[in-house]
Amino acid sequence: MGGFPFSGSVRRHVSGLGVLPALSSAERTERPYFDDVSPRNVSAVVGESAVLRCRAKHIGNRTVSWMRKRDLHILTSHIFTYTGDARFSVLHPEPSDDWDLKIDYVQPRDAGVYECQINTEPKINMAVMLSVEDESFTPAPQPPPRSSAAAATIWGSQDVYVKKGSTISLTCSVNVHSSPPSSASVLWYHGNAVVDFDSPRGGISLETEKTEGGTTSKLLVTKAALTDSGNYTCVPNNAHPASVSVHVLNGEHPAAMQTSNRATYLTSQLSCALITYLLSSMAGR
């Protein structure tokens, strides 16, 4: 994709109508504007982090937001995130004018145009192009942990059975102290692919609670289909990951499977006992 041809020597004000002339000093003291000193073209490698810069001056009580252009999805507003994809966050060190969008574990689908917006009337925005380089990277659900003793735990059994059409609910706890709490993040994988909360499938959401004592991440997959079966991995950025195996059943109840497994086990035990008895009888003759 092509870049955005902006001159580095002139700061400009961008709106949905195009590029407006540079503002005078008097005008800048009365209305917000973008301090256009950051690159409009950003490159990132799959699996790494990308930061899209946005510096908004004199916003007053107005709000700075980030929007993904391809689907007009609002990702962040002020310091809050408005997407179920936990890879997105806003970086705003107080009391700076920076409102940077951070994307962790960048994926090829993240490539495209993002807009930093100020809710003036009319609204003004600044576009940033993200290019993603795919170096045949295979997502590795085990980033280097900060502590060898820190590990994630997924509640319940390592094998989860759900009926087709019901909801898959997986809760992962990471009992790692972090300062600030927001520095700890959790990513979910289905097999070797990062769970895509904005996929056409829909019905996938994430609930995350962060405290100084740790992080709890709850993955919800509604209307489970047979294709939702497989290995799910909770991958914290500061601890060892944890995995469970999900089995979506097409009409068969988990209890039936467990009963069948128990019967198979008992049959195996009886067979072993019978063979042992026969061998002992033959040896005694």
TrEMBL record:
GO terms for biological process: synapse organization. Pfam families: ig, V-set. Residues 32-131, 145-245 form the Ig-like domain. It comes from the Eukaryota. Gene3D superfamilies: Immunoglobulins. GO terms for cellular component: neuron projection membrane. InterPro entries: Ig-like_dom, Ig-like_dom_sf, Ig-like_fold, Ig_sub, Ig_sub2, Ig_V-set, Immunoglobulin_dom, Zig-8. This is Ig-like domain-containing protein. It comes from Pieris macdunnoughi.
